[in-house]
Specification:
With 168 residues, the chain is of the alpha/beta class. The chain has a domain at 1-72. It is built from six helices and four strands. It has helices spanning 5-14, 32-43, 57-67, 94-107, 133-148, 160-166, and strands spanning 49-50, 71-75, 86-92, 122-124.
Length: 168
Amino acid sequence: MVAGRADIKYGVERSRLSRRGKHSGNATFDDSGTVEAATLLIEQGADVLYTVTGPGYKGVWEAAQKAGVPVVAYAYDSYDIAPDVIAASVTYDGPKQFELVAQMFTDGTIESKLYNVGYEYIGIADFRGSVDAETETTIRDTFEQIASGAIEVPERTLTEQEMAEAFK
């Protein structure tokens, strides 16, 4: 199941992270919004969740674990943190991305805009048996075809107005 625009907007509205404490630059977050948003998606038929919510991921994982729904984690291989709920992880090479930004800054070519840095910064962690071998091969082959340009994925950047509306 793919979440529709209304679901995404609801999820954004419900998953506002609230700062409850300040100490040494750290904060604790209230995950109730992401638990609620993830639970709503599960109730609407989502059979797998993918989250890019920053600290809110814990709420998504919590809801998914309660419902027995697997999660595809984001940014790094999260399996060791929550092996009962993480089916796979999409990883990205943050240091390589930061090196690119630093180089553009040093060269004087950096601009105030969003950059699409490309698939060379993205990877897929080990599935650890969460899908059968044929499905894993299909996923990895499809990813490689996308990364190589053999399959074209249309790009769309939200307008400033759309961003403002989504994060009201």
